[in-house]
Amino acid sequence: MKVYFLKKNNFIISYIHFNFKINNNNNNNNIIIFFLKKDIPTLAINFDLEWNRLKIAMDAIFNTAPLSDSLEGLYTLCENLCKYDYSSSLYQNIRNELIEYLKQEFINISKKLDEQNFLVSLSYLWTSFCKKLIMIRSIFLYLDRTYALREVKAGSLWSLGLELFKTYVANVSNIRIKAINELLALIEIDRQKKFITGEEENKYILLRTIIKMFIDLNMYEDFENAFLEASTIFYKKESRLYINKISMSTNSGQLIAEYLQSVETYLNEEVERCNLGCYNGYVDSVTRKSVTLIVENEMIKSYINIILEKGFEYLISSKAYNDLLRLYNLINRVDLLESLRIYFLNYIKKTGSFYVLDSSKDPVMVQSLLDFKKDLDDVLEQSFNNNDKFVNTVKEGFEIFINERQNKPAELISKYIDNKLRQVRSIPEETVEQLQERCMFLFRFINGKDVFEAYYKKDLSKRLLLFSKSINIELEKSMIAKLKDECGGGYTSKLEGMFKDMSVSKDLINDFIKEPEYSSRIGNVSLNVNVLTSGFWPSYPQSTYNMPQELLECQNAFSDFYLKSHSGRVLQWQNSLGFCVLKADFPKGAKELIVSLAQAIILLHFNNTDVLSYSEIETLSQMNTKELKKSLQSLSCGKYKVLIKNTEGKNVVESDSFVFNKEFESNLRVLKINSIQAKESLEERKTTREKVIKDRQYQIDAAIVRIMKARKTISHPILLSELFKQLKFSITPQDIKIRIESLIERDYIKRDLSNNTIYHYVL
Fold first, then answer.
1. What is the C-alpha to C-alpha distance for residues 60 and 109, in angstroms, rounded to an integer?
2. Which of 158, 299, 392, 587 is buried deepest, with most CB atoms within 10 A?
């Protein structure tokens, strides 16, 4: 297929002729297009004369004078010259005119090199040249489109003008160096915020114009290199001044906070400075990354240790969360979060050890640690973006410091939970549950979980037996469930057994009341008995009293009832855990006294007389001296003085005598005097501690035998290593050595005859 095109005037006449040749050997049909060029008739034209008209127009533009010809006429003249093949000559003449103009302008601008307003002059020259070049290009637009863009290597007239301006003005060494130095001086003034008020906008326009000139002339790299070098010098100097001031100050923490604010401000300013679209932006955006990197390196990375050493502890202890967030973000920019994490860990260990190791702070240790944990949570959330590494750092720190003091933290955590569960009526249930969850965080990291269990079981038993009407069973079970989730069912099996005993006891007492044969023997006394499985509950010291007949009959009646259906079992009455509600008729009003069984026995003896001596009470009650004195002290020297002691002071001695207080009065009808039962005595604490040690000995023995049975033969160092892995509480090599000797004596293991450090399992 052949297509012919012929252009005539403003119309295109097309002749299309189709030729198809079928060739069985070749399936390709080619399309050939021919352009028929119509020859332009030769006319007489004087190029020099016509060019002179165009030159006059260019001179007028250069001199900012009115044009003698219209723009339309000049454009048509250029078009005609191009059509008659004068494009090359025309282009060369334009180039020569631009060169002559720029040479003269270079002479003019060179005279202003030493003037203060050199940049203003250069800016004016550049902007005026660009405007003049645009007008010249509009006259020679036909030449630009038909010849310059296709035939000339330099490209369009606009590109030609910029290249000539660069060659004859901007890139001349003294002009370029002067312009860059002046720019850098202005930028430093801007960084120091020393622009004269009201002149900021003009200065920004000037900076933007000159730097845009460097960009348009492909000279920006020269400026950028100088700009980055000057930026390095500036920020190195600024940071050194700040750091020297911080090093010599006694208030370095506050100065660090101010320093971080300055760094953040500098970074934000550089980002805006490298945005030509901003009001105060004049540097190209390609420089943004490099200049911000300089700020980060000079002001953060170079002084990271000083910043953290002088400021971190101040910021975190003063709860300056915004400053900490700023610190975190800045350090994250230089990829040094690990340094911050290490300081964070050291702070946690230092602060935690302060609370744990000082025994004088034991009463407030747990609450202090919970408050400390809450503060750290606030830091993580508000300042460290809940970074997983920092969250794990908190856990790591707590695990280290909370075990620096063996056993005591576990005991105090148990006591703290006990205290809150006893106050459940005065604290909202949601608050108690939150406290339980927070305490579980501490519990997870203690090595002495067996210590916690021993004390928790002791305290739980008293809550169930002495405060059964005031505790919240759901909260108690919730705590057991949390412990079970954390440590498994074996850890809480005894605690769960205690709740089961309480439930069974409730059913037993209901059955007892339904049996007149036994319930009639207790008269009008309301009896409640808890039958406890010895394997679940803590052991208690046995207390033997000379019981009044009415109390003794209550015990005997229930014993007969229980043993009738549970033959073969042995009931052992725990008198130290018993309590009574006595109705007391005082002259000034009747009261109900909640007292321990020992207190009740003492008070019941005052039904027969108003005065009893210490020795008489001792003979009647047959209590041991320590318990008797403690009970008498609580009745005569406590908050409610039901008895009056004949001597002053809070101590009870054998020579004291006691009188029933007929003048006793109180606004309350029910008075609780048995609080001494709830308090843990030194003996109880000692007993609990000894039980833990004894249980640990059993665990060590069992672990050694288990390892020896599996290995048959093992060396002492490897045995120690295995034990440290298996045992969940802190233990010393000396403790292990004692248990090894005990097992050797009992023929569980034996030493190698030739090497004392090797043990063999005895089959």
1. 20
2. 299
